[in-house]
Design a protein that fits this description.
Elements (H helix, E strand, L loop, with lengths): L1 H22 L5 H6 L15 H14 L18 H4 L2 H9 L1 H7 L1 H7 L13 H16 L1
Helix pairs in contact: 3-8, 5-8, 6-7
Length: about 140
């Protein structure tokens, strides 16, 4: 019985520490490495799905290309080699949740100092963000 009480106490302490950390606005280790947003666990990526990448290219050209060039500086960072610099989860989280990342994520806050414009929320949901990620993976494979 004492064993179960000790386990319960440990769980209560761990949970309260997590809530305290989140209340202070600090990021979890996962968020620091992978951005803030709906992607909360590591993605399982297989070989590049060219059909999905084509869909992602269309979305990228419609919603991202105005600010993000593939190569060369635009109003936002260039996308060439982005999948080598950032995790897939980070890329998807910044696409789906740019405003909170710009307010709270230290890497994005630092990056903002190089660009004068905020990344707008384009209303991109999970499936479309995943397609854009696949397109960026395809570009970086070439």
């Amino acid at each position: 019985m004492k064993f179960f009480v000790n386990i319960l106490m440990i769980l209560v302490i761990m949970t309260s520490n997590l809530f305290a950390q989140q209340k202070k606005g600090e990021l979890t280790d996962f968020e620091l490495k992978n951005g803030i947003g709906p992607v909360k666990s590591k993605l399982k990526l297989d070989k590049i799905n060219t059909k999905l990448a084509e869909s992602g290219k269309k979305s990228f050209n419609e919603k991202c290309l105005l600010c993000h060039k593939i190569e060369g500086k635009g109003m936002g960072p260039a996308m060439k080699n982005i999948t080598k610099k950032r995790s897939p989860e980070f890329i998807m989280n910044i696409i789906m949740n740019p405003e909170e990342n710009e307010r709270r994520h230290p890497e994005i806050i630092k990056l903002k100092s190089q660009y004068r414009f905020n990344m707008p929320d384009m209303g991109i949901k999970y499936d479309e963000a995943r397609a854009i990620l696949e397109y960026l993976r395809l570009i970086d494979k070439k």
